[in-house]
Amino acid sequence: MSSAPPQGPGSGHLQPDPPLEPTLDKTNKMAEVTLDGEQSGRDVLKPHGTTDDTHDRPRTHSLDSPPLLLKMPTEIMLEVLSYLSPNDLARASQTCRCLAHYAYDDRLWADLVNDNLPVPIKDPGLFPSFRRLYSAHSPFWFIPKYKIWFADNEHTGNLILARYDNRRGVIEAYRIIADRGRPMLRLWAHNPEVMIQTFDPQVLLWLDDPVLFLKDHDPKSQVCTSEAWAEERPMPMHSDSNLVHSTLNLCRQVPAGVSHPDELWPPVTIPTQSRVARRRRHQQSFPGPSSKIVDFAFAIRRWPMAAFVSVALHDEIFVTYATLDPGLYTATEDKPYQGIWVGDYNAHGCEFILFIQQGTSLTAIKLTGDPNVPRGELTFKADEIGPDSTIRIAREEPFEGARVVPCLGHVAGLGFHDDTFISSQLFLISKDEVAHYWQDLGHISYFRRVDIDGVLRT
Prior knowledge:
This protein is an alpha+beta fold. 13% of the residues lie in helices and 32% in strands.
């Protein structure tokens, strides 16, 4: 069976799914058409306001025979239904028993689940069916689908990777961290006054403390116990034992009047078609129809519980997360340096950077930051990295063979005060390793490409 091509983040709004489990009950109250075309119960569902004189109207087919649609072979019917969205497939199941039979075919729901996973699963795991699995985590399947999410925490930000664990039947997300190990000092023959620290980071997920966790409380049941559609869903986090409550919130597109860059996420430095308004403390959700809910952002709300009673107090905190269009971090033959990298920022530790290559220009944007240059800001930019911009080819260790191009590095005081760009140089060592020479600071920092899929497999 084929299915409609998946949309990228921000390409459309996330439409709320109708409740999936109750459709059988609704179907029982409708015309009971059996699979062989026989009818029982009421013959026809009449539109509101009609009378019993419908026999005087011309009919295109006999009431004693099923519609032509229901006469199609099973393979063709399933092929047709495979092009429906989960919403429309659930609605189709509410029309009659025959379509309910086809719409409940687990092959359709297996495709819908696997459309959201980087590696398809072959069975529904703890759940009795793929349909039951899909309804358990609807409408949050977009979270493992886009997998990379970065947060608006002040200054530092946060980078998390999301995945679905079929063994436990949960959607989870963990913070991605980097351990740079113990650096060694190296002498640079080109300029002995500049000391170089080696950088060989180990990038991994911090599995001890999930940032996001969605779980069905009774996956063996035939009926979904989770809310069929809720803009805010509780998360059974380990932190609950510490009297902190967490919920996952859907986000709407930017409402009218929100235009200041500081109020938007993703930040304006990252190219995207759509943005959401950052959630703040003590701030209620923006009113609006559910059709405005998006699939490229979500928010996590946390607040303390007093005496085991969940009460939102003044300590309520919202953190907004957004994803990245894969076209921004996927390296290509024309854009070999594009991707997500980890950089050595000395006393600030390791930070994760998005390299965006447009033609022969390269821009580095912080996905995580520090009190000087925070997340969402540029850390350096090179307007021209092509062969014509080459300053020299390094002949000395440890940069032998690297092409050196001009660059501008971004520096600032604490609190991002008095920020400015200073002259620097970029050493293009390989497609997976780059060094940034801060000439005025007498310092060289390394950047290494991050294998996101490799980290997710840990």
